[in-house]
Structure formats: C-alpha cells, structure tokens
Amino acid sequence: MPLRTVTSRLFPMTAAVLVSLSLAACGSGMSLTQSKARGYEISEDAVAQIRVGQSAALVTAVLGSPQVTNSFATETAWYYLGEKVQQTAFGMELSKERTLLVVYFDKKNKVVDTERLGVKDGKSFSIESRRTPSYGQDRTFLESIISSI
C-alpha cells in the first residue's frame, strides 16, 4: 500500500478524534463560574420535622449542631446558616441565596418556635467611611526615616 493512501485514510480519522476530544474538554468543568454551598443545607423536610415541644437532642439529631447559640434570660436560640454562592474563575463571589434558620428553646430545652429568615428579611446599612483622627503626623516610610536622621 502506498504511503499516500494510508495518510489520506488516517487524516479524517485523526481529525475526528481531535475534534471530539476538544469538544469533550469544553464540558468538563472548565466554565467561568461555579456554584458552591456553604454552611448548612437547610431542607424543607428537615424543618418540617422540628415541632414545638421537641427536645434539643432531637433537633441536634435532625439538623446537626448549630453554628451559633445565644442564651437569653429564659430562652436559648440556635442558629443554622446556609448560603449558596456563585464563584467566578477570577475569585469573585456573588451570594445567590442566604437562609437563616433560628430554633428557640425554653429553659427546659424544649422547642418553643422556629423562624426562617432570608436576605429580604435583613436590613442593609452603610458602613461609616470617615477615619478617626490620630495625634501626630501621617508620614510615609521614607519621611519617617529621613526625619529620624
């Protein structure tokens, strides 16, 4: 068989293999954004299992241990926070959904109430950008070296 005939038959097959491999690489997680979950996955089924009068041990068995606990005079609150984030390839993160589940207990460690909060239930506030003045002078590194000489 002449070399030219073998080459002409292998070229279309080689091209087809290369095209299929490059297309397969496009769908293998090389996208510019990824969806991630942080904290607790708070499902509706788990929340439906928590009822008034249940013990703290049962709540721990269903939801796991809380991220934060807060004790008031006669009540205790357990906080479970779950967040879904979309992260870009450049490291920027955008919060898509945030859910806070609060379980309130009385002094006998029995469930009194549950509350589910989202981003729309929160209040946004602006952070003060003014600086507190300090005594002395603001100097750069070079200015402080020159002044010490």
Automatic annotation (TrEMBL):
GO terms for cellular component: Bam protein complex. Residues 39-112 form the Outer membrane protein assembly factor BamE domain. InterPro entries: BamE, BamE-like, BamE_dom. Keywords: Cell outer membrane, Membrane, Signal. GO terms for molecular function: protein-macromolecule adaptor activity. GO terms for biological process: Gram-negative-bacterium-type cell outer membrane assembly; protein insertion into membrane. Residues 1-24 form the signal peptide. PROSITE patterns: PROKAR_LIPOPROTEIN. PANTHER family: OUTER MEMBRANE PROTEIN ASSEMBLY FACTOR BAME (PTHR37482). It comes from Devosia insulae DS-56. It comes from the Bacteria. Pfam families: BamE. This is Outer membrane protein assembly factor BamE domain-containing protein. The keyword Membrane applies.
